[in-house]
Amino acid sequence: MSLKVARSTLIWSRLVTRMTSPHVTRFNAIRAQSSETGGKTSNSSETPSANGEPSNKEHANNSAKKISKANIPPSQGGPITWRSLLIGGGTLALLTGYFLYLKRLKQEKIEREKTRTYGKAAIGGSFELVDTTGKLRNSDEFRGNWLLIYFGFTHCPDVCPEELDKLATVVNRLTKDNYKVLPLFISVDPERDTPEMVGKYLSEFSDKFIGLTGTKEQVEKATRAHRVYYSVGPKDEENDYIVDHTIISYLIDPKGELVDYFGQTKQAEEMEATIKLHMAKYKANG
Predict the structure, then answer these.
(1) How many other C-beta atoms can be found within 10 angstroms of the C-beta atom of residue 221?
(2) What keywords sit in the KW lines (predicted)?
(3) pLDDT in tens, 54-66
(4) What stretch of H or E contains 129?
(5) Are 213 and 151 a contacting pair, CB within 8 Å?
(6) In the β-sheet with 210-213, what is the strand arrangement from edge to edge?
(7) Which residues contact 6 (CB under 8 A, 6 or more apart)?
(8) Nearest Cα to 173, choosing from 208, 212, 211?
(9) Known binding positions
(10) Looking at residue 48, what is its pLDDT?
């Protein structure tokens, strides 16, 4: 009797375990949902009914699919749209432009600092030269004035006349607007450019020019101070020659420091505007 009871208990426990397994529980849920929709569960009915309605098995399969889909969690990220792409691209472009702007500002600051240091340390210095009247002049006499210094020679066939004519235009315009600038012409041909010849040459452009020349040693000292290159070319049969030299006009402030320079391609209007700007900054800084 006890053996029968034990066997019955074992069979009953196995039956309960099967009935409570996940597969059975899920199947029962499908059956319950099928019952709620009007379907009847029948183990013997696996074919469509006479009126064309799906069988109970098909109802169970459809219900299982619905439950399976219902258990799938929704996507967290959402679909990628054109709007999101445009917003992301625009943000990236703005950030890139901002960083490029900061980089350019930093580079401009470095260049300004280099120019300021270069101008103070490398260009400019004392000199002693002779003016068109034969008087010895030194650089200290011009302190307190804005200067435009150009190095050239009186036998220059084309470049020097063009540059001196441009400088005369700039100085006349500045003078008209009450901006005072002294234009200095320093010869790089001491062998031929006597004080008298320099004076006669400059009178063809403007009476405001201060012409300076001197001995070879005096001229070399002035050119070295302003980092001006010049080289005397070979002489021809008539003892004539050309002097190759730097074509730059230097703007010197009243303290004797270089603040800017103008090359051959700089136009008179640009030079005028730049000089006025430097003067305004100098005045504002005291």
Answers:
(1) 16
(2) Chaperone, Copper, Disulfide bond, Membrane, Metal-binding, Mitochondrion, Mitochondrion inner membrane, Transmembrane, Transmembrane helix
(3) 555 554 455 545 5
(4) strand 128-131
(5) no
(6) 136-138, 128-131, 210-213, 182-187, 147-152, 249-252, 258-262
(7) none
(8) 208
(9) 156, 160, 245
(10) 45
Tokens of 83: 């709007």
Binding site membership for Cu cation: which residues? 156, 160, 245
The residue to which tokens 């001197």 are assigned:
214
Token couple for 175: 């003078």
Say if residues 129 and 186 touch (Cβ distance below 8 Å).
Answer: yes
Using the 8-state DSSP alphabet, how is residue 41 labeled?
-
Count CB neighbours of 259 within 10 A: 20
Measured distance CA(264)–CA(166) in Å, rounded = 10
* Intra-chain end-to-end CA distance of the chain, in Å: 122
Amino acid (one-letter) located at 118: Y
DSSP-assigned letters across all residues of 256-283: S-EEEEE-TT--HHHHHHHHHHHHHHHH
pLDDT recorded at residue 174: 97
- pTM exceeds cut of 0.90: no
Three-state DSSP class for residue 18? helix
Q: List, for residues 190-224, the tens digit of each pLDDT value.
A: 999 999 999 999 999 999 999 999 999 999 999 99
Q: What are phi and psi of 117, to 5 degrees?
A: -65, -40
The CATH T-level fold of domain 128-285 is Glutaredoxin (3.40.30)
Structure tokens at 157: 């066939």
Contact criterion met (CB below 8 Å) for 188 and 230: yes
Helix (H, G, I), strand (E, B) or coil at 229: coil
Task: Assign 130 to helix, strand or coil.
Answer: strand
Chain CA centroid to CA 168, Å: 36
Nearest to 180 by CA among 170, 190, 195: 170
Amino acid (one-letter) located at 255 = K
